[in-house]
Design brief:
Elements: E1 56-58, E2 64-66, H1 67-71, E3 77-82, H2 87-92, H3 100-111, E4 117-122, H4 153-164, E5 175-177, H5 183-189, E6 195-198, E7 204-208, H6 211-216, H7 218-229, H8 259-262, E8 275-276, E9 282-284, E10 291-295, E11 300-307, E12 312-317, E13 322-326, E14 333-341, E15 344-353
Parallel strand pairs: 3-4, 4-5, 8-15
Antiparallel strand pairs: 1-2, 3-6, 6-7, 9-10, 10-13, 11-12, 11-14, 14-15
């Protein structure tokens, strides 16, 4: 079996769904941190021109927000992420903060709180006191918090509530907890306090690596206001959801992916509805730790694994009805397996490495 590693695509259109149909149980384990790059490297996450995946996340009370549904509204959607231990995030909403970078950001929030659809996502802690920090953030314990990196969804959900209930901060928005697989943080942000302005067709229009620095720039503020004033309403043509006819579907969500998009097609390319896996094809165990077995490959010619950043991780030819893939040294997380067939639609499967 031939296998190779390729660098991540610079930009890719990715219509699909991270798929969490209902709020996870509090006991659900949160995935470990992946490698986000070198210290202070915030180049990860969606870039301007990328087309984003859909997601569904939940607030403390279990109320959900679905991104693609929000994008069809009349207000432009702006995603912002933060955490309890991110100093810039906390200080932006601090009642007694007077620093220019903080007041500039909070002033924009206050002046335009009703003119954008602000969606705040709480995910990875930037500077937890247990030292379990993302690779691209400086490790520090110089914080007034006692928060650690979440090990289960309940901890993360309660961290959202603790933030909202803080008497030292004025946070006028709803905050949603990232799902246990950290998919929103890993795919959309990969940085501690970022901003993404997304058009109604799912294409990123604005990106801020640091939200405070972003709003200190008058050009960025003017561009956001102009975008709002000229915003149009449209819809996304996509297929997503669980497969009700697949008996192998044990309740885990299915990710739908446009294969052309993952290979770097423009965001304007048409979206194909991929065929859902039938019972004759097996991908197991899933979740997997060491070796992934794939059976029922009679009409499959080749396969590819992509991570959720759209990077091609491994490619292989298929010469037998079954094969095994050693994934023991891959970063833990979610992947998309796409299987090519002669004269037929590609097959795809969501694979989780634990």
């Amino acid at each position: 079996m031939a296998a190779f590693w390729l660098s991540c695509l610079v930009s890719s259109a990715q219509y699909g769904d991270f798929g969490v149909a209902e709020q996870p149980e509090d006991s659900t384990s949160v995935d470990g941190l992946i490698d986000y790059g070198e210290l202070l490297d915030f180049s990860g996450g969606y870039a301007v021109g990328d087309t984003v995946f859909n997601f569904t996340v939940y607030n403390f009370n279990g109320e959900s927000v679905e991104l693609y549904e929000e994008l069809q509204g009349e207000k432009p959607v702006v995603l912002v992420n933060g955490s309890v231990s991110c100093h810039r995030f906390r200080n932006t909403f601090g009642l007694n903060e007077v620093g220019q970078e903080y007041t500039g950001a909070i002033t924009f929030f206050q002046d335009y709180s009703d003119e954008f659809n602000w969606i705040f996502i709480y995910g990875i802690e930037a500077h937890p006191t247990d030292g379990n920090c993302p690779s691209n953030c400086p490790t520090t314990t110089s914080t007034d918090t006692t928060v650690t990196q979440a090990l289960d969804y309940g901890y993360r959900r309660w961290a959202v509530q603790t933030w909202l209930a803080s008497s030292d901060h004025d946070f006028p928005f709803t905050m949603y907890a990232d799902n246990p697989n950290n998919a929103v943080y890993n795919q959309f942000f990969a940085r501690p306090f970022g901003l993404l302005g997304i058009n109604c067709n799912g294409v990123v229009e604005h990106r801020g690596d640091w939200l405070t620095s972003f709003f200190m720039d008058s050009g960025n503020r003017e561009a956001m206001i102009n975008w709002k004033d000229n915003y149009g309403v449209c819809s996304i043509d996509w297929e997503g959801g669980d497969d009700p006819d697949d008996p192998d579907d044990d309740g885990d969500p299915v990710i739908y992916v446009d294969n052309h998009a993952l290979n770097g097609a423009s965001s304007e390319s048409s979206v194909q509805t991929l065929e859902i896996l039938g019972t004759e094809l097996g991908v197991y165990p899933n979740p997997v730790r060491d070796v992934l077995h794939i059976s029922g490959l009679m009409d499959v010619t080749s396969g590819k694994f992509f991570n959720l950043q759209g990077c091609l991780i491994e490619s292989f030819r298929v010469n037998n009805p079954s094969t095994a893939i050693d994934v023991s040294d891959w970063p833990r997380g979610a992947y998309v397996l796409i299987l090519e067939r002669d004269g037929a639609a590609s097959l795809q499967r969501h694979v989780v490495l634990q």
